[in-house]
Write a structure and sequence with these properties.
Layout (H helix, E strand, L loop, with lengths): L2 E7 L3 E8 L4 E8 L4 H15 L7 E7 L11 E2 L2 H13 L7 E5 L4 E6 L5 E7 L7 H11 L6 H6 L13 H13 L4 H23 L5 E4 L6 H11 L3 E2 L7 H18 L1
Parallel strand pairs: 1-4, 4-5, 6-9, 9-10
Antiparallel strand pairs: 1-2, 2-3, 6-7, 7-8
Helix pairs in contact: 2-8, 3-5, 6-7
The protein binds adenosine-5'-diphosphate.
The site of adenosine-5'-diphosphate has 20 residues, from helix 3.
Length: 267
């Protein structure tokens, strides 16, 4: 059987996805990008192939995407993360009746992408100037609050008071604001909800710049945080489609494109 790989070398995490010839997802693997992007990406690929009992010879075509894609010289091709995200969301979104708007929050940037019914990018907007609306902000905030990233969702839903306003647009100032709120005796729960709403407001402003059309697909690592999902849904006043593996949508899109390019060459 032939297999196809997408590797998304992100600012924070490396994501690998493998699909079979029918375009079905065979497996995914996520690991920290660290400082040695190329070495870590190679190891992540080897690890996933071993887990799936495959070898490099089973892989017919490999496409790299993401921030560090140019470093992965072994790839057969590379594409922008906007294109890969659009393909992945379009494919994964079919199970939900189709998606037309993508909100992606990554480690160091956030994006809104509008796609047409065939999954082609119509319009996109990106915010990489300020990390206060990104995963990095959540990482820093969780550290300040001394809670695990995975616990942010529970803290959000356990908040019994109104979410506290976090107004700083820069992570460093937002960090001081969080420390100030803790020093004033505020509950961690209300602070966490405030952080989520502050990211949600920024994200919705970005999405409005590209135009919001149903259905709206939310991906990237922070989409694993149910509290953030709820805050964005509240600000958007619509439900989000969150796939089973939100962090690996872009890698999945690159794998789907690898499969399509290979099959087109064979035809
Ligand atoms: P990039 O592509 O820029 O590397 P990702 O889409 O991989 O970014 O997202 C990385 C971010 O995802 C991290 O900064 C972190 O905030 C968030 N994240 C990762 N795993 C989880 C988790 N289990 N729960 C909540 N947030 C998570």
């Amino acid at each position: 059987m032939n297999y196809f790989v997408g590797i998304d070398i992100g600012s924070t995490a490396i994501k690998v996805a493998v699909v079979d010839e029918a375009g079905r997802l065979a497996g995914v693997h996520v690991t920290a990008s660290g400082s040695l992007f190329h070495k870590n990406a190679k190891e992540a690929l080897a690890r996933l192939l071993t887990d799936l009992k495959l070898t490099r010879d089973d892989v017919r075509y490999l496409i790299a995407t993401g921030y560090g894609r140019k470093l992965f010289k072994e790839a057969d091709d590379s594409i922008s993360e906007i294109t890969a995200n659009a393909i992945g969301a379009h494919e994964a979104g079919k199970a939900f009746g189709g998606v037309r708007t993508i909100i992606n929050i990554g480690g160091q940037d956030s994006k809104a992408i509008q796609i047409d019914a065939d999954g082609h990018v119509v319009n996109f907007a990106m915010n990489d100037k300020c990390a206060a609306g990104t995963g990095r902000f959540l990482d820093v905030a969780a550290r300040n609050l001394e809670i695990d990233l995975e616990e942010l969702g529970d803290y959000h839903f356990n908040s019994h008071s109104a979410p506290l306003a976090i107004n700083s647009t820069c992570t460093v100032f937002a960090e001081s604001e969080i420390i100030g709120l803790l020093a004033s005796g505020h509950d961690k729960e209300a602070i966490v909800a405030g952080i989520h709403y502050s990211i949600a407001k920024r994200t919705v402003r970005l999405a409005k710049r590209v135009g919001i059309e149903d259905r709206v697909y939310f991906d990237g690592g922070p989409a694993l945080n149910k509290g953030l999902v709820a805050a964005i849904e509240d600000e958007l006043q619509r439900q989000l489609v969150v796939p089973e593996h939100p962090q690996t949508t872009t890698a999945f899109g690159a794998a789907i494109l690898a499969r399509n390019e290979y099959l087109a060459e064979q035809a």
